[in-house]
Amino acid sequence: MPELIEYQCDYPGCGSVLFGSGIKCSWCRHIWCKSHDTVDQHECASLSMPQDVDRLRSIVQESADQQVARVLEKVRQHRHHIIQDIQSLRPSHVPTLHIPDTFDTLKASKWYSCFNVHFLISFEDNVKWLLRVRINDGREMPHDLVYPSIRSEVATLNVLKSHGVPVPTAWLPPHMQERYTGQEAPNIDYFFYDFLPGKAQEVPIDGYFGPINLPEDKIDQLVENYVKSQTMLSEIKLPCKQIGCLKISSTLDPAAEVIEVGPIIQQGTFMRPTAPHFLGPFDTLKEMYTAHIDATLHYISINGLRDKFQVDDYLWHLELRELVSCSKVLGETPDQLYIKHLDPSGTHLMVDENGYLSGILDWEWARVTTKADAFSDGLFRETEDFFWRGDNSLTDMEERVIDCYNKHGRPDLAECVTGSRLYHRLASIGRYDPARHKSGYREVFKPDLPEDFDPPPRDADWRVYMMQRYRANEGLQEVMQKYGWNIERAEEVSNRARGV
């Protein structure tokens, strides 16, 4: 889910402001107001699945190409400024910024992903850097939204580097440093870091819910690389006392800069629609998840999620809020905190020519958190049983990771994977789906469920139960009134579902 802020319609000169999840077309990524979301302006409006699947897929690719092409053009436009930045960070050296002549050349290099594009920087002494440029969906994003993310990624990389983790050293451009008072910043978001040799770990997937499709020996090596990377992170003893994202202190004295914990920097509903956008830091996970849920409730109340189930969405998040408030585990004050990679799919690992771990990349959105949270992932991928049927059993890949941790004498990290489902379930905050079986979300909070908590399994009955349970909640009453619901209507729907 992208940043939930206000955007303008893409039609030239329109100026209409739109807000909420789903305002960007899923295919072409354009934003159209109602007046301009027409077949003449928006081809996708005339297409549908599955009959137009080939054309829609080509539109997705065209949109992605256009976004990267815009980045390429901006780098060309700001080449002189970027080179000046490099020279200020590495004086007395001669940099060369390698900008591909054409988009096709850049595309063939594959030096880009969904979020960033990379350009090589070489020096006369054979040192190599990369320019890492945010794609931002091909749009100019507010500085108060993008700058904290880049500053945190740079701070995280440099903390990891100082502890021997194989990540690149990173540098902020001068205009993004807190104490900067120079000329106006360019309309392109970037930073610099060391070039790391190697290639991304291959993690081919069979479909959305499919397993990792690799030979057994390659899976074993993937697990070993993953366990090695997580073990490195577990050995870093941070002096931090709060949960949040790392940042560089805003001191006027560069020599006195220290790394500290700031707000959680994340997309979706874990933010405010207006500045200051980000929430935290927090003393406990209970505080963090409660803040995320409250932010989500606010988005629902202003139709920021633009779904068809606003009342059920609100009720489900009220249920989650109550379960979080009763959790003893989430309420514990941590005595030691760790750095968590927020997208540990396996492709964040760099490997050498023999397939061994050589680096760890993509630290955007990384956070400082508890041990149980930081090491809960275990190369987990949602299965159909997890998604549809509320199944919280461990996957085969997680069992492999647990065995590998135990083999290397780290039963403590294996235990984090064993108890990981609480954190995997809470990752759904802000992403309500009535198709998900609600029992799976309650099971992970045992034995801390409230004594009087006994919701019925059928959704229509659950809706009545929750409306009664949270009838004193003013926000719920406002949402119910806004979308034409009351307890009587809910009871009628429940009775019809039961054939009464």
- Note the total helix count: 17
Envelope shape? globular
Helix content class: 25-40%
- C-alpha end-to-end distance: 40 Å
Give unreliable regions as ranges.
none
Estimated radius of gyration: 24 Å
Major β-sheet strand ordering: 3-4-5-7-6
Share of β-strand residues: 5-15%
Largest sheet: 5 strands, antiparallel
Let me know the number of strands: 14
pLDDT averaged over residues: 93
Assign the structural class, choosing from mainly alpha, mainly beta, alpha/beta, alpha+beta, or little secondary structure: alpha+beta
What does this structure look like?
With 500 residues, the protein is α+β, with helices and mostly antiparallel strands. Among the domains are: 1-46, no CATH class; 57-195; 282-333 and 429-497, no CATH class. It has 17 helices and 14 strands. It has a 5-stranded antiparallel beta sheet, sandwiched between helices. Strands 8-12-13 form a 3-stranded antiparallel beta sheet, covered by helices on one side. Helix 5 (216-234) crosses helix 11 and helix 11 runs antiparallel to helix 12 (411-418). The longest helix has 25 residues, at 53-77.
SSE arrangement:
Layout: E1 6-8, E2 17-19, H1 53-77, H2 79-89, E3 95-97, H3 103-109, E4 116-123, E5 128-134, H4 143-162, E6 170-171, E7 190-194, E8 199-200, H5 216-234, E9 245-248, E10 259-262, H6 285-301, H7 310-326, H8 328-331, E11 338-340, E12 349-351, E13 357-360, E14 367-369, H9 371-374, H10 384-389, H11 396-407, H12 411-418, H13 421-426, H14 439-443, H15 459-469, H16 474-482, H17 487-497
Antiparallel strand pairs: 1-2, 3-4, 4-5, 5-7, 6-7, 8-12, 9-10, 11-14, 12-13
Helix pairs in contact: 5-11, 6-7, 11-12, 15-17
